[in-house]
UniProtKB/TrEMBL annotation:
The keyword Oxidoreductase is annotated on this UniProt entry: yes
PANTHER family in the record: 2,5-DIKETO-D-GLUCONIC ACID REDUCTASE (PTHR43827), NADP-DEPENDENT OXIDOREDUCTASE DOMAIN-CONTAINING PROTEIN (PTHR43827:SF3)
Keywords noted in UniProt: NADP, Oxidoreductase
Residues at the catalytic site: Y57 (proton donor)
Family: Belongs to the aldo/keto reductase family.
Organism, as annotated: Paenibacillus donghaensis
UniProt-recorded name of the protein: Aldo/keto reductase
MF GO annotations: oxidoreductase activity, acting on the CH-OH group of donors, NAD or NADP as acceptor
SUPFAM superfamilies cross-referenced by the UniProt entry: NAD(P)-linked oxidoreductase
Domain NADP-dependent oxidoreductase: 23-265
Site (Lowers pKa of active site Tyr): K82
Higher taxonomy: Bacteria, Bacillati, Bacillota, Bacilli, Bacillales
Positions that bind substrate: H115
One Pfam entry name: Aldo_ket_red
Length: 278
Protein backbone atom coordinates (compact mmCIF):
# COMPACT_ATOMS: atom_id res chain seq x y z
CA UNK A 1 0.00 0.00 0.00
CA UNK A 2 1.52 3.35 -0.97
CA UNK A 3 2.12 6.36 1.21
CA UNK A 4 -0.87 8.27 2.50
CA UNK A 5 0.52 11.81 2.51
CA UNK A 6 -1.00 14.56 0.45
CA UNK A 7 -4.61 14.54 -0.60
CA UNK A 8 -4.03 13.78 -4.25
CA UNK A 9 -0.50 12.37 -4.49
CA UNK A 10 -0.92 8.67 -4.78
CA UNK A 11 -3.07 5.89 -3.51
CA UNK A 12 -3.10 2.15 -3.09
CA UNK A 13 -1.75 -0.15 -5.78
CA UNK A 14 -4.50 -2.51 -6.84
CA UNK A 15 -3.93 -6.24 -7.34
CA UNK A 16 -3.58 -5.69 -11.11
CA UNK A 17 -0.81 -3.10 -10.69
CA UNK A 18 -2.96 0.01 -11.29
CA UNK A 19 -2.90 2.87 -8.79
CA UNK A 20 -6.20 4.31 -7.57
CA UNK A 21 -6.53 7.57 -5.60
CA UNK A 22 -7.53 7.36 -1.92
CA UNK A 23 -10.21 10.00 -2.44
CA UNK A 24 -12.81 10.31 -5.17
CA UNK A 25 -15.97 12.26 -5.86
CA UNK A 26 -19.17 10.22 -5.76
CA UNK A 27 -22.03 11.50 -7.93
CA UNK A 28 -24.98 9.35 -6.79
CA UNK A 29 -28.21 11.42 -6.86
CA UNK A 30 -26.41 14.25 -8.67
CA UNK A 31 -28.52 15.50 -11.57
CA UNK A 32 -27.19 15.13 -15.11
CA UNK A 33 -26.38 18.39 -16.86
CA UNK A 34 -25.18 21.51 -15.04
CA UNK A 35 -25.29 20.07 -11.49
CA UNK A 36 -23.01 17.12 -12.16
CA UNK A 37 -20.78 19.04 -14.59
CA UNK A 38 -20.22 21.70 -11.92
CA UNK A 39 -19.55 19.12 -9.17
CA UNK A 40 -17.00 17.24 -11.31
CA UNK A 41 -15.23 20.44 -12.39
CA UNK A 42 -15.14 21.73 -8.78
CA UNK A 43 -13.67 18.45 -7.57
CA UNK A 44 -11.01 18.36 -10.28
CA UNK A 45 -10.12 22.03 -9.67
CA UNK A 46 -9.73 21.20 -5.95
CA UNK A 47 -7.30 18.43 -6.91
CA UNK A 48 -9.48 15.31 -6.94
CA UNK A 49 -8.34 12.83 -9.57
CA UNK A 50 -11.00 10.14 -9.17
CA UNK A 51 -14.66 10.35 -10.22
CA UNK A 52 -17.16 7.59 -9.46
CA UNK A 53 -20.39 7.27 -11.44
CA UNK A 54 -22.69 4.46 -12.62
CA UNK A 55 -25.12 3.71 -15.43
CA UNK A 56 -27.83 3.63 -12.75
CA UNK A 57 -27.11 7.24 -11.73
CA UNK A 58 -28.11 8.45 -15.22
CA UNK A 59 -25.44 11.17 -15.26
CA UNK A 60 -22.54 9.60 -17.20
CA UNK A 61 -22.85 12.19 -20.00
CA UNK A 62 -22.49 15.08 -17.56
CA UNK A 63 -19.56 13.39 -15.82
CA UNK A 64 -17.78 13.02 -19.16
CA UNK A 65 -18.50 16.67 -19.98
CA UNK A 66 -17.18 17.82 -16.59
CA UNK A 67 -13.95 15.87 -17.13
CA UNK A 68 -13.47 17.40 -20.58
CA UNK A 69 -14.34 20.92 -19.35
CA UNK A 70 -11.83 20.66 -16.50
CA UNK A 71 -8.91 20.97 -18.90
CA UNK A 72 -6.97 18.29 -16.96
CA UNK A 73 -5.56 15.57 -19.24
CA UNK A 74 -7.75 12.47 -19.37
CA UNK A 75 -4.91 10.15 -18.31
CA UNK A 76 -4.61 12.00 -14.99
CA UNK A 77 -8.19 11.20 -13.98
CA UNK A 78 -9.34 7.83 -12.66
CA UNK A 79 -12.88 7.17 -13.92
CA UNK A 80 -15.18 4.50 -12.47
CA UNK A 81 -18.60 3.49 -13.71
CA UNK A 82 -20.86 0.55 -12.95
CA UNK A 83 -23.01 -2.03 -14.70
CA UNK A 84 -26.70 -1.64 -13.86
CA UNK A 85 -28.76 -4.60 -12.65
CA UNK A 86 -31.11 -4.78 -15.64
CA UNK A 87 -28.11 -5.11 -17.98
CA UNK A 88 -26.50 -8.09 -16.26
CA UNK A 89 -25.66 -11.31 -18.11
CA UNK A 90 -22.70 -11.94 -20.43
CA UNK A 91 -23.70 -10.37 -23.78
CA UNK A 92 -25.83 -7.63 -22.24
CA UNK A 93 -22.92 -6.60 -19.99
CA UNK A 94 -20.69 -6.13 -23.05
CA UNK A 95 -23.38 -3.98 -24.67
CA UNK A 96 -23.99 -1.95 -21.50
CA UNK A 97 -20.27 -1.24 -21.22
CA UNK A 98 -20.28 0.22 -24.75
CA UNK A 99 -23.25 2.45 -23.88
CA UNK A 100 -21.47 3.75 -20.74
CA UNK A 101 -18.25 4.33 -22.64
CA UNK A 102 -20.11 6.27 -25.34
CA UNK A 103 -22.02 8.39 -22.80
CA UNK A 104 -18.81 9.23 -20.92
CA UNK A 105 -17.08 9.97 -24.22
CA UNK A 106 -14.02 7.94 -23.22
CA UNK A 107 -11.98 5.39 -25.16
CA UNK A 108 -11.25 3.31 -22.08
CA UNK A 109 -12.27 3.23 -18.44
CA UNK A 110 -10.08 2.94 -15.36
CA UNK A 111 -12.49 0.81 -13.31
CA UNK A 112 -15.72 -0.99 -14.20
CA UNK A 113 -17.81 -2.48 -11.41
CA UNK A 114 -20.81 -4.81 -11.19
CA UNK A 115 -23.18 -2.56 -9.22
CA UNK A 116 -25.12 -5.25 -7.30
CA UNK A 117 -24.84 -9.07 -7.11
CA UNK A 118 -28.01 -9.88 -9.08
CA UNK A 119 -28.85 -13.53 -8.27
CA UNK A 120 -28.38 -15.88 -11.22
CA UNK A 121 -26.60 -13.21 -13.26
CA UNK A 122 -23.59 -11.77 -11.45
CA UNK A 123 -21.36 -14.75 -12.27
CA UNK A 124 -21.88 -14.33 -16.05
CA UNK A 125 -21.52 -10.56 -15.70
CA UNK A 126 -18.14 -11.07 -14.03
CA UNK A 127 -16.97 -13.27 -16.93
CA UNK A 128 -17.89 -10.40 -19.28
CA UNK A 129 -15.82 -7.95 -17.19
CA UNK A 130 -12.86 -10.34 -17.34
CA UNK A 131 -13.23 -10.32 -21.15
CA UNK A 132 -13.40 -6.49 -21.29
CA UNK A 133 -10.20 -6.25 -19.27
CA UNK A 134 -8.42 -8.76 -21.53
CA UNK A 135 -9.48 -6.67 -24.53
CA UNK A 136 -7.88 -3.60 -22.95
CA UNK A 137 -11.13 -1.64 -22.79
CA UNK A 138 -10.98 -1.25 -19.03
CA UNK A 139 -7.83 -1.21 -16.89
CA UNK A 140 -9.30 -2.59 -13.65
CA UNK A 141 -12.44 -4.58 -12.89
CA UNK A 142 -14.30 -5.01 -9.66
CA UNK A 143 -17.61 -5.26 -7.91
CA UNK A 144 -19.88 -3.27 -5.65
CA UNK A 145 -22.05 -4.48 -2.76
CA UNK A 146 -20.60 -8.01 -2.90
CA UNK A 147 -20.56 -10.02 0.30
CA UNK A 148 -17.86 -12.64 0.98
CA UNK A 149 -19.93 -15.48 -0.54
CA UNK A 150 -20.49 -13.50 -3.76
CA UNK A 151 -16.75 -12.79 -4.03
CA UNK A 152 -15.91 -16.46 -3.51
CA UNK A 153 -18.33 -17.44 -6.32
CA UNK A 154 -16.75 -15.26 -8.99
CA UNK A 155 -13.16 -16.00 -7.94
CA UNK A 156 -13.94 -19.74 -8.04
CA UNK A 157 -15.51 -19.41 -11.52
CA UNK A 158 -12.75 -17.42 -13.20
CA UNK A 159 -9.66 -17.39 -11.00
CA UNK A 160 -9.77 -13.59 -11.37
CA UNK A 161 -9.85 -11.69 -8.08
CA UNK A 162 -11.70 -8.34 -8.28
CA UNK A 163 -9.45 -5.32 -7.88
CA UNK A 164 -12.07 -3.44 -5.82
CA UNK A 165 -15.21 -4.11 -3.79
CA UNK A 166 -17.15 -0.89 -3.23
CA UNK A 167 -19.55 -1.26 -0.32
CA UNK A 168 -21.48 0.72 2.25
CA UNK A 169 -18.89 1.32 4.97
CA UNK A 170 -18.97 3.81 7.84
CA UNK A 171 -18.77 3.97 11.67
CA UNK A 172 -22.23 2.40 12.08
CA UNK A 173 -21.44 -0.39 9.56
CA UNK A 174 -17.79 -1.32 10.01
CA UNK A 175 -17.85 -4.54 7.93
CA UNK A 176 -15.06 -6.21 9.96
CA UNK A 177 -15.32 -9.67 8.38
CA UNK A 178 -15.50 -8.29 4.86
CA UNK A 179 -12.57 -5.93 5.49
CA UNK A 180 -10.47 -8.82 6.84
CA UNK A 181 -11.39 -11.07 3.88
CA UNK A 182 -10.61 -8.40 1.27
CA UNK A 183 -7.22 -7.67 2.86
CA UNK A 184 -6.40 -11.39 2.86
CA UNK A 185 -7.37 -11.80 -0.81
CA UNK A 186 -5.85 -8.57 -2.13
CA UNK A 187 -9.16 -6.84 -2.91
CA UNK A 188 -9.21 -3.09 -2.26
CA UNK A 189 -12.22 -2.06 -0.17
CA UNK A 190 -13.88 1.22 -1.15
CA UNK A 191 -16.53 3.00 0.93
CA UNK A 192 -19.75 4.41 -0.46
CA UNK A 193 -21.89 6.60 1.79
CA UNK A 194 -18.83 7.02 4.04
CA UNK A 195 -20.53 10.00 5.71
CA UNK A 196 -23.68 8.01 6.51
CA UNK A 197 -25.77 10.19 4.20
CA UNK A 198 -25.15 13.13 6.52
CA UNK A 199 -25.99 11.31 9.77
CA UNK A 200 -22.81 12.54 11.47
CA UNK A 201 -24.49 13.76 14.64
CA UNK A 202 -22.79 11.25 16.94
CA UNK A 203 -21.31 12.46 20.26
CA UNK A 204 -17.99 10.65 19.71
CA UNK A 205 -17.50 12.22 16.27
CA UNK A 206 -18.21 15.68 17.68
CA UNK A 207 -15.78 15.05 20.55
CA UNK A 208 -13.02 13.90 18.17
CA UNK A 209 -13.72 16.81 15.81
CA UNK A 210 -13.10 19.20 18.73
CA UNK A 211 -9.99 17.27 19.83
CA UNK A 212 -8.34 17.33 16.37
CA UNK A 213 -9.72 20.69 15.22
CA UNK A 214 -11.55 19.07 12.31
CA UNK A 215 -15.12 18.45 11.16
CA UNK A 216 -16.92 15.19 11.95
CA UNK A 217 -16.79 14.39 8.20
CA UNK A 218 -13.00 14.78 8.16
CA UNK A 219 -12.71 12.52 11.22
CA UNK A 220 -14.69 9.76 9.46
CA UNK A 221 -12.78 10.08 6.19
CA UNK A 222 -9.47 9.94 8.08
CA UNK A 223 -10.72 6.82 9.88
CA UNK A 224 -11.35 5.22 6.47
CA UNK A 225 -7.87 6.09 5.27
CA UNK A 226 -6.16 4.66 8.35
CA UNK A 227 -7.85 1.34 7.67
CA UNK A 228 -6.68 1.38 4.06
CA UNK A 229 -10.18 1.99 2.69
CA UNK A 230 -10.71 4.21 -0.37
CA UNK A 231 -13.50 6.73 0.05
CA UNK A 232 -15.83 8.60 -2.34
CA UNK A 233 -17.92 11.17 -0.44
CA UNK A 234 -20.66 12.70 -2.56
CA UNK A 235 -21.27 16.44 -2.65
CA UNK A 236 -22.48 19.02 -5.15
CA UNK A 237 -21.20 21.99 -3.11
CA UNK A 238 -17.74 23.33 -3.95
CA UNK A 239 -16.91 24.26 -0.33
CA UNK A 240 -17.93 20.79 0.92
CA UNK A 241 -15.89 19.15 -1.84
CA UNK A 242 -12.85 21.10 -0.56
CA UNK A 243 -13.65 20.28 3.09
CA UNK A 244 -13.96 16.57 2.31
CA UNK A 245 -10.38 16.56 1.03
CA UNK A 246 -8.99 17.94 4.29
CA UNK A 247 -8.16 14.71 6.08
CA UNK A 248 -4.64 13.89 4.90
CA UNK A 249 -2.61 16.15 7.20
CA UNK A 250 -3.47 14.71 10.61
CA UNK A 251 -3.56 11.25 12.19
CA UNK A 252 -6.07 9.69 14.57
CA UNK A 253 -4.58 7.80 17.51
CA UNK A 254 -5.01 4.02 17.54
CA UNK A 255 -7.37 4.37 20.50
CA UNK A 256 -9.56 6.83 18.60
CA UNK A 257 -9.64 4.58 15.52
CA UNK A 258 -10.82 1.74 17.79
CA UNK A 259 -13.39 3.95 19.54
CA UNK A 260 -14.95 4.84 16.16
CA UNK A 261 -14.97 1.16 15.19
CA UNK A 262 -16.90 0.41 18.38
CA UNK A 263 -19.77 2.62 17.19
CA UNK A 264 -20.72 -0.25 14.86
CA UNK A 265 -24.41 -1.25 14.92
CA UNK A 266 -24.45 -3.17 11.60
CA UNK A 267 -26.75 -0.37 10.53
CA UNK A 268 -27.31 0.03 6.78
CA UNK A 269 -28.62 3.26 5.28
CA UNK A 270 -28.75 1.52 1.89
CA UNK A 271 -30.11 -1.86 0.71
CA UNK A 272 -28.91 -5.21 2.00
CA UNK A 273 -26.83 -6.95 -0.72
CA UNK A 274 -28.46 -10.29 0.18
CA UNK A 275 -32.02 -8.92 -0.02
CA UNK A 276 -32.68 -6.33 -2.72
CA UNK A 277 -35.21 -6.39 -5.53
CA UNK A 278 -34.24 -3.82 -8.14
Amino acid sequence: MSEMNGPFSGGPTLNDGATMPWLGLGVWQTKDGEEVIHAVKSAIETGYRSIDTAAGYKNEEGVGQGIRDSGVPREEIFVTTKLWNGDQGYESTLQAFEVSRRKLGLDSLDLYLIHWPVPGKYRDSWKALVHLQKEGLVKSIGVSNFQIHHLKDIIEDTGVVPAVDQVEFHPLLTQRELLKYTKETGIQLEAWSPLMQGNLDLPLLKELAAKYGRTPAQIVLRWDLQQGVITIPKSVHAERIVENAGFFDFTLSDDDVKAIEELNEDNRFGPDPDNFNF
